[in-house]
Write a structure and sequence with these properties.
- It is built from 6 helices and 5 strands; from the N terminus they run βααβαβαβαβα.
- It has 163 residues and is α/β, with parallel strands linked by helices.
- Strands 3-2-1-4-5 form a 5-stranded parallel sheet, covered by helices on one side.
- Helix 4 packs parallel to helix 5.
- The longest helix has 14 residues.
- The protein is globular and about 45 Å long.
Length: 163
Amino acid sequence: MTHNSRPLAVFDLDGTLADTAHRQRFLERKPRDWDGFFGAAPDDPPLPEGVRMVQESARECEVVYLTGRPERCRRDTLDWLAAQGLPEGRVWMRRDNDRRPARHTKLEILERLAAQGAEIRMLVDDDELVCVAAEQAGFTVVRAGWAVTSAALKDAQEREGRT
């Protein structure tokens, strides 16, 4: 069951709340530099549209963060959320060795939360394939179209399942 009886507002991080543009260059080289990509995450500027939406949602909902970042990035992620003044909330991350596409890992967590009795008010995500999968499963989705995402990042998300 959820921490309280409020519905959940589920937010992605990269490309939804965090602007990854400055670190996408790490994925444009071969081989991709995943350590560099995730190592630069603490320097992500916040995306104002996403931050506003989280703050507004926190008035009525329990905020949950659902990211494709690997578990090894948890401390940096928690520190970044706190530094942005974002509402506290559970953070769901992929296992370090889980390389499935985010559309699978995120949907699995959404379905687990729903099975535990949580009312999921919405998922806010910038990954179109995640959005489509969540909608097909019956979840309400808000597409975060306010960040610029490189083709290299989109390809890496789908083919390599790293974020």
